[in-house]
Specification:
Length: 566
């Protein structure tokens, strides 16, 4: 019976240990820390004392982990845990407070080391949530320290300073010296809040304020701190993890040739599967760009697209070229040629199946840098599309110098195509430009039959937009590809308009739209001539008031182009 009880007690201890302690460092985990924090606040309320919380995050831990390996990372975390614990124990005020609370409630001896060792320690004296001055590991490289019975706020800051100091000594692992710094945020009861969540959040915000001002420091929460900064950093951290945990996915939007009604290509668009949500790129690409994460993300996207095509091929599906969006920030920061070459080579993929989309503004920005890059990509055999075309006002002479294959008409022009003669003029100019340069032209964001007809009438056959399909998961794309041939509404209806071919078209606002050139003509008949002074419709005026300069410039650009080249 005695053995039975001993065994059961041991099992109970083990369970408690696993539930409350972090197995890597032996420190209390997030859950236990929250319990401790909650009880500390309760006690402080009755005794009228203060409580402080320190939120500690190692600087550039991810980098260390990536370059030196997880084993070194783990070792570092254990070592940091030890030092943090030491700091709290050695602090006089803190130590005295611990003593006052009695030996059984004193700071728990650290059980730094392997999980088994900490299990043994846990079975000796199972700490209660009433514990004081706890060091905990919330996860990753995030630690917290709880300071109870604080007589004055300066005590908390003193502990924080002490932590920064102990971190200054290098960490030594297998003969290598490693220098690590930390960012620490502080918050205190009752000054900053009275519940666990509020205080933790404020300490977290303060910690991010430290990161933002150059890391390696301590700040106390103040209401002037930018919560947006903290959110941005949170997002960045989460995005780091997303890449590791393979939460990023690519969806595929078809590009359709409206003459055949068939899918002739696809654009890979990124999504982030975050919890049960599908986060669109608008919410994370900027953060990825600003943090440099865009580099591994782009490299992943290129690889993933190649791998997806191989998967499709292995399943016996026909392949169409797929494009990947390349951010300007990637080009500024990193090599693009190598990952593209490596992916093509690694997956033994025909380079003609891979297309890269770069925005017009990025290409325009630094011609001397982009020109050799584009040339090198072309040498690999991949195609280049100029994305969001029309927003950068490239001149014809400029475009002539670029080794590109496709212009993608920016969605903003397509959106207003039916209601704005200005936009119709810009679209016409882009199509004309693509023809004279013998480039393919794809219209983006086609949502209505009316837009489709207009675009077709102006000489554009390749379209992409919700009219056909939004981006779909990779698994669903082959079925769509197969079905596309029989989607009659994806095909332009030639019927009545065949008679109009070549005739002067009337625009909806009654302006002559110049010569018509049908899509089936291979030779360019001549660029359409929009009215020199296009009148604005009501919706037009709205759009103009949104972006007066952009619209004006685009229109001047279109007119200039047509004037010069017709
Ligand atoms: P983008 O390259 O111009 O991509 C086209 C965007 O228009 C996509 O939004 C697409 O879902 C949306 N779209 C397509 N058809 C229609 C339509 O008919 N109507 C409307 N209103 N929208 C349509 P998404 O997927 O949210 O992507 C937004 C932007 O995020 C992209 O603009 C691109 O700049 C960026 N992005 C997406 N994926 C990646 C990626 O893998 N890498 C990088 N660097 N950027 C990406
Ligand atoms: Ca694009
Ligand atoms: Ca675009």
């Amino acid at each position: 019976m005695i053995q039975d009880i001993t065994e059961r007690k041991h099992a109970e201890d083990q369970i408690r240990q696993l539930a409350n302690y972090d197995s890597l460092t032996g420190l209390p985990n997030r859950r236990f820390f929250r319990d401790q924090f909650g009880s500390a606040l309760e006690r402080a309320r009755t005794s009228g004392t203060a409580v402080g919380v320190l939120f500690i995050d190692l600087d550039r831990f991810k980098q260390i982990n990536d370059t030196l390996g997880h084993q070194v990372g783990d070792q570092l975390l254990r070592e940091v845990a030890k030092r943090l614990y030491q700091c709290v124990r050695d602090n006089d005020t803190v130590a005295r407070a611990a003593e006052r609370a009695g030996p059984s409630q004193g700071v728990r001896p650290p059980s730094i080391g392997s999980a088994t060792r900490s299990l043994a320690a846990g079975s000796q004296s199972a700490p209660t949530p009433a514990n004081l001055n706890s060091v905990a590991r919330l996860g990753g490289d995030e630690f917290t320290i709880l300071l109870t019975d604080v007589s004055e706020p300066s005590v908390i800051e003193a502990v924080a300073q002490r932590i920064l100091e102990t971190m200054r000594k290098p960490f030594t692992f297998s003969g290598h010296e490693l220098f690590v710094t930390a960012s620490i945020g502080l918050a205190g009861y009752p000054a900053d809040g009275s519940d666990v969540d509020t205080l933790l959040r404020k300490a977290d915000i303060a910690m991010y304020a430290v990161k933002d001002s150059g890391r390696n420091g301590v700040l106390r929460f103040s209401s002037a701190m930018n919560t947006a900064t903290a959110e941005r950093w949170r997002l960045e951290t989460a995005l780091h993890r997303a890449l590791e945990r393979q939460e990023l996915v690519l969806y595929y939007q078809p590009k359709v040739n409206v003459v055949s009604g068939q899918i002739v290509g696809a654009e890979a668009l990124m999504r982030w599967k975050r919890g049960g949500e599908l986060v669109p790129p608008a919410e994370f690409i900027t953060v990825a760009e600003e943090s440099g994460l865009i580099v591994p993300i782009t490299e992943w996207a290129v690889r993933e697209v190649c791998e997806q095509m191989v998967r499709w091929a292995d399943q016996g599906h026909p392949l169409v070229p797929v494009s990947v969006n390349i951010s300007g920030r990637h080009i500024q920061r990193a090599n693009l040629i190598e990952p593209v070459q490596a992916a093509l080579h690694g997956f033994k993929l025909d380079p003609r199946l891979l297309e890269l989309e770069l925005t017009e503004t990025v290409l325009m920005h630094n011609l001397s840098a982009t020109l050799p890059l584009l040339q090198a990509l072309k040498d690999l055999g991949v195609s280049i599309s100029v994305d969001d075309f029309g927003t950068g006002y490239s001149s014809l002479s400029y475009l002539k110098r670029l080794p590109i294959d496709t212009l993608k008409i920016d969605r903003s022009f397509v959106r207003e195509l039916e209601t704005s003669s200005d936009n119709a003029a810009i679209v016409a100019a882009i199509i004309a430009m693509s023809k004279s340069l013998k480039l393919k032209v794809v219209a983006e964001g086609v949502e209505t039959q009316g837009q489709m007809t207009r675009l077709f009438d102006q000489g554009c056959q390749l379209m992409q937009g919700f009219l056909f399909s939004p981006a779909v998961p990779g698994d669903d794309f082959p079925a769509m590809l197969k079905a596309s041939a029989s989607q009659s509404h994806w095909r332009i209806d030639f019927g009545p308009r065949a008679h109009n071919k070549g005739a002067v078209q009337e625009t909806s606002d009654g302006h002559a739209n110049g010569q018509h050139f049908g899509a089936l003509e291979t030779e360019m008949v001549g660029p359409p001539r929009p009215s020199a002074q296009p009148q604005s419709t009501e919706r037009d005026a709205e759009h103009v008031s949104e972006q007066p300069n952009q619209k004006d410039r685009a229109l001047r650009w279109a007119n200039r182009f047509i004037g010069r080249d017709s």
